[in-house]
Write a structure and sequence with these properties.
The complex is a heterodimer of chains A (253) and B (364). Helices cover 29% and strands 25% of the residues of chain A. Chain B is an alpha+beta fold and 364 residues long. Helix content of chain B is 55%, strand content 19%. In chain B, the strands form two sheets. In chain B, strands 1, 3, 4, 5, 6, 7, 8, 9, 11 and 12 form a ten-stranded mixed β-sheet that branches. A two-stranded antiparallel sheet of chain B has the order 2-10. In chain B, helix 9 packs parallel to helix 12. The relative contact order of chain B is 0.19. Classes of the chains: A alpha/beta (253), B alpha+beta (364). At the A-B interface, helix 2 and helix 3 of A face helix 1, helix 10 and helix 13 of B.
């Protein structure tokens, strides 16, 4: 098995999960979170992972993003074998290739909107045209007039749009979103999902999004159903555009 | 840098307390050391300003000249004057007194012989004493105690008239006629020490050796470098200053460490965010240490300001105290502050860098 540093990985996403097992230990008690998942996500796909609470969706996301170590199995993202990569390579992988969006917004409260994005640029080592990218992204998410405000001065919907902009500012090839609309009202949730749809259109990054909201999942190209730590089904792929109305034609894979 | 700076600004109360604590420790160090060294330096400087090259006193006597009375025969002055290399001799009776709640050194002198050693009393108001019942005070004491020529004051249980005010920084703060002080102390024809001026600077060492050879049981103190000699002779001074320095370091270190540890706990989720963004452990440690250094750096600056304020206040309230803040001790204080910031942040930084990113993200 070979593993490559993130900098060596060719652009264009590809997630390949085989027999992925993740167990949590609490003393002598072993709690299985993932029970041998197989999964493929093609480059540029917007994939939603659905399932009831506690079925292992977030665990899957964090293992794919190199934030959690798998107990067994294999996760390959691009050409990087995530499950066996050393810590330094995983850090470089997150730094260069992955953008995270969380349910709880998770912005740096002490920094302005602009500085939150600059921080991501700096950590990623992407200082080239950083200001240009930030300006363009804030315009894209409709927050160009609020770049000097601090996160706590923004609404939750606006904060989530900042978080999405932060995930995109380093131009990742993979965006991992954990319940990005979980804390939002329906209006803001629709706005955020429209933004994700827009991002996924036209050669954007691969998006793996955790959600338990069917309406949000319907915006994705493909829906992966999970239950009890296993993938139990997959809905069909739908070519969509950013302006496409919600409402999903689902086909069992 | 931006994040560390923003964190310092965001947690204003925490930052202010931390900066103040480091600043107070730093100021305490500088003021205590400054007072200790300043007092010694001032005493030594005053002795040196008399203008002599040597002090002759009993062997084994302290350099703190007021801590003795008349122990040497006054007629040694003639024997000293006859020794080759000696240009002038002035016998002095040194004693201490309390005056208006202050502790002062009193010199009993013969003004004429005292002047032969150096510039003499350098009277700035009035005249030198000519006979019994007259006293000269120095300008610093006159200003501090609001004394003026013509005023009558009580010294060692006797009434004296102030006949002159001398320039500060020469010998003692109070000067009495030597014969009168000898009588008051029941030490007639006895003196505490002799100031000796040599014929040339090159002759000082040889003259000192000649004096010690001629007069048994005396010791010559060369006045050049007297302050260092006095500091060395004070047993425990170095240990005292070391203890103050160490205490400042430890207190600052603990304050910084506690502040940073609490900050890390508060910012656990932000550490998770940084890890999700791809920040390495080294970067997170660096960020914590940088924040700590910013705090202690500000603390050092605050310490300079507090020191300046404390010195100004001390000079206003206690004009006779001398605080000497040297560049060396300013650097030592700054170094102690910065070292406390660095050492105090190490454990919190290590703790932050070891956080599990997923757990950190779900931290409430």
């Amino acid at each position: 098995m070979t593993s490559q540093g993130a900098s060596d990985v060719p652009r264009g996403s590809d997630i390949r999960v085989r027999g992925l097992v993740k167990e949590y230990r609490s003393g002598r008690i072993i709690v299985p979170a993932l029970r041998g998942i197989d999964l493929d996500v093609a480059p540029g796909t917007f994939a939603a992972v659905m399932g009831p609470s506690g079925c292992g969706k977030s665990t899957l996301l964090y293992v794919v993003g190199g934030m959690l170590r798998a107990t067994a199995g294999s996760v390959r993202v691009h050409d990087l074998e995530v499950t066996h990569a050393p810590e330094r390579e995983l850090t470089a992988f997150r730094r260069g290739r992955v953008g995270f969006v969380f349910q709880r917004l998770n912005l740096m409260a002490a920094l302005t909107v602009e500085d939150n994005l600059k921080l991501a640029c700096r950590i990623a080592g992407r200082r080239d045209r950083c200001n240009e990218r930030i300006r363009a992204l804030l315009e894209r998410v409709g927050l160009e007039g609020k770049r000097r405000m601090r996160p706590l001065d923004l609404s939750q919907g606006e904060q989530q749009r900042v978080a999405i902009a932060r995930a995109l500012v380093k131009e990742p090839s993979l965006v991992l979103a954990d319940e990005p609309t979980g804390n939002l009202d329906s209006t803001n949730a629709r706005s955020v999902m429209a933004l994700f749809r827009q991002i996924a259109t036209g050669g954007g990054p691969t998006i793996l999004m955790i959600t338990h909201d069917a309406e949000c999942a319907a915006v994705a190209d493909t829906i992966i159903q999970m239950r009890d730590g296993a993938a139990v089904g997959r809905s069909g792929v739908h070519p969509r555009s950013a302006s496409a109305a919600p409402g999903v034609e689902e086909r069992r894979a | 840098m931006t994040l560390a700076f923003a964190n310092v600004l965001q947690k204003k109360v925490r930052s202010a307390i931390c900066i103040l604590a480091v600043g107070i420790g730093f100021a305490l160090l500088l003021v205590v050391v400054g007072l200790t060294r300043g007092s010694i330096q001032e005493v030594a400087q005053r002795i040196q300003n008399v203008g002599g090259d040597l002090i002759v006193q009993p062997a084994g006597a302290t350099q703190f000249l007021a801590l003795k009375s008349g122990v040497l025969p006054e007629q040694y002055a003639e024997r000293l004057r006859a020794i080759p290399g000696v240009a002038a001799v002035s016998p002095v009776v040194a004693w201490t007194t309390t005056f208006r709640n202050g502790f002062y050194v009193v010199y009993g002198i013969d003004p004429e012989r005292f002047s032969s050693i150096g510039g003499g009393l350098r009277i700035v108001d009035g005249r030198a004493m000519r006979g019994p019942g007259e006293v000269v005070v120095d300008s610093r004491l006159a200003a501090a105690a609001r004394l003026s020529v013509g005023e009558r004051i009580e010294i060692l249980g006797s009434r004296f008239e102030i006949v002159g005010v001398s320039k500060e920084g020469i010998g003692a703060r109070i000067f009495l006629p030597m014969a009168e002080l000898q009588t008051m102390l029941h030490q007639e024809k006895r003196v505490s020490l002799f100031f000796v001026r040599c014929t040339s600077p090159a002759a000082v060492k040889a003259t000192a050796a000649a004096i010690e050879g001629e007069l048994a049981g005396v010791r010559c103190q060369i006045l050049e470098g007297l302050a260092d000699e006095m500091a060395r002779s004070m047993s425990g001074l170095r240990e005292f200053i070391g203890a103050i320095t160490g205490t400042t370091l430890v207190v600052s270190l603990l304050v910084v460490s506690l502040a940073m540890y609490m900050t890390i706990l508060e910012k656990t989720r932000e550490i998770g965010i940084l890890r999700s963004l791809g920040a390495s452990r080294r970067l997170i440690m660096g960020s914590v240490v940088l924040e700590s250094m910013l705090l202690t750096g500000c603390g050092v600056v605050a310490g300079y300001a507090l020191t300046a304020a404390a010195v100004t206040a001390l000079r206003a309230w206690y004009p006779l105290l001398t605080v000497e803040i040297t560049r060396f001790w300013i650097l030592v204080g700054g170094g102690v502050g910065i070292a406390s910031g660095l050492l105090g942040a190490l454990y919190p930084a290590w703790f932050a860098a070891r956080q599990d990113p997923v757990r950190a993200l779900s931290y409430e």
